[in-house]
């Protein structure tokens, strides 16, 4: 089985060289647009590509407003600040995520509160959240959600769309409304993923994208906040040193951040975004082939949840147990075909071992079994 998997992956990428998990593709106008910023000298914090990238991304995702920043982690930090997450607050999230989700909470001097994920989405479970809150939380006289013991405010809920598979948003929105939690989506992995026809990142107050080098499209490093006009205006202000517009004076009306995306990176983003539909198409072709390949095997491919259209950023399978997983990891990596386990649960990291949590049975179960497979855009889909 493992030999035939290695052969299968090599066939997709038509190479005997090392096959990475995810490599970017620059086969559009990247060179042209990046060179244009260099020729213009506007490579840094001012320039037309930032505005254009924001407009194009808002149009692609059907968001009211998109605000570009230097990476996805910075976008998460600002999103939580805009949700008024204060020191000492708790923010609900999943333990099965990339560390940036939790770090952004810590940057606000708040703490994560971990609830379990669903096996069908790999993302935050609305039922697990509701059950935890029913047992351990209350709504106080100000309408704030607080823990019964310690009276700590639970301000927001930050689910993550794992590998581009949307969480169960309808139920999650209901639970967040019931418990007065502000919903913020970590959509870093789900650009091009839709829940019931609507782009992920548009369901809460703010959604966050990442354009790191390993994501479905890249700006080198970059991120984006998707939100409404008013919040977007605040986000722009806060991420550009909170400077009041003036022809020559320097007036800053609060402590802002220099989180701007440089024009150079935005130019790369504009060129990548032009190709995103082709990337998405290629990833669906590859995902369908993986699903077909694993049909009837001991490995269960991870497929898009019902009612969703996933971007299949990273393909994954669920092994029967951790022994089988380790065997697969070892054999494929030894053969130069890169595979990876899912992240260590955040609750296992020393920095978050003390965090509050509910039962994490599904996260533990998936954590021991999930493996990601090479998922770059297929060579046949790359225009020459
Ligand atoms: C990539 C990613 C981020 C943001 O990462 P940056 O490298 O800061 O752009 C945040 N959350 C998740 C789940 C991610 O995968």
From TrEMBL:
Keywords, ordered alphabetically:
Aminotransferase, Pyridoxal phosphate, Transferase
Q: Which CDD domains match?
A: AHBA_syn (cd00616)
Q: Which GO terms describe its molecular function?
A: transaminase activity
Supply the InterPro entries for this chain: DegT/StrS_aminotransferase, LegC-like, PyrdxlP-dep_Trfase, PyrdxlP-dep_Trfase_major, PyrdxlP-dep_Trfase_small
> Which PANTHER family does this UniProt record tie to the protein?
BLR5990 PROTEIN, TRANSAMINASE
Task: Give the family, as the similarity comment puts it.
Answer: Belongs to the DegT/DnrJ/EryC1 family.
* The name this protein goes by in its record: LegC family aminotransferase
Q: Which organism is it from?
A: Vogesella amnigena
- Source lineage: Bacteria, Pseudomonadati, Pseudomonadota, Betaproteobacteria, Neisseriales
